[in-house]
Amino acid sequence: MMHPTDPGDIHEIDRDEVARKDAEVEARQAEKPAHGDKTFSQKMNDSRFFGIAIGLLALFYVFIYVRDGGSLNLNSLNFAFLFLGILLFARPSAFLEALNEGIKTVSGVIIQYPFYAGIMGILVGSGLMVSFADVFVRSASAATLPFWSFISGGLINILAPSGGGQWAVQGPVMIEAAKELGASYSATAVAVQMGDQWTNMVQPFWLLPALAISGLKLREVMGYLVLILGYLGVVFGASVLIWGYMTA
Predict the structure, then answer these.
(1) pTM above 0.90?
(2) What are the structural domain ranges in the chain?
(3) Helices within the chain (DSSP H only)
(4) In the prediction, which pLDDT does 30 show?
(5) Which of 72, 112, 156, 211 sees the fewest Cβ atoms within 10 Å?
(6) Other CB atoms closer than 10 Å to residue 126's CB: what's the count?
(7) Are the C-beta atoms of 186 and 239 separated by less than 8 Å?
(8) What mean pLDDT is predicted for residues 102-124?
(9) What is d(CA 203, CA 120) in angstroms, rounded to the nearest whole number?
């Protein structure tokens, strides 16, 4: 319904035009005063304090890791180089600009996945993910457990978009609940994964390469994705609810 019906209203992306507009935006941003009308997130992104603090904190962890006998491997090496780069650039925005200039096609994946892995580690190590899932389990019956599994899977995916890692922790909780309530194992398991895929509409890692190739910005397609999120929420939610009542 949002798509233009008149073919004459559909305009293909002109990469040269996109590059020119990006250059104009960057030039306007460069002309702004240092303390102009920036949002709170923009001020944090331009703050040397936050960039240096994040870099030092991470490198302090590297020191503890090595001191306690940690081995040199791909994870520790990537971690050290990532945060050393953040520390040396000082401002997170400068670090991101350098990434976009050097490896534009995959910069979003390279910088975001390590942080999401950290968020997943916090959720798992602290027990927050299990506690979060338990909140929904306590409100469920044999018929409604797949539905609440779907909702909890979707919400947890926003915090840590990793289907396999999420299921490794949340899956046993939901299956144990299905066993105690007499709910369908298959409906409960599939509902968690449907919830994970549902909120991927607003966690579009899958879209990053396409955005880099097309020259589009995420904000230019997010409106479509939010509409799809709402539509799929109704369809998926109703489906797993009906499935739960059919198998209870």
Answers:
(1) no
(2) 43-102, 127-248
(3) 15-31, 40-45, 48-67, 74-89, 92-102, 107-126, 128-138, 145-159, 163-181, 185-198, 208-214, 218-247
(4) 61
(5) 72
(6) 10
(7) no
(8) 77
(9) 15
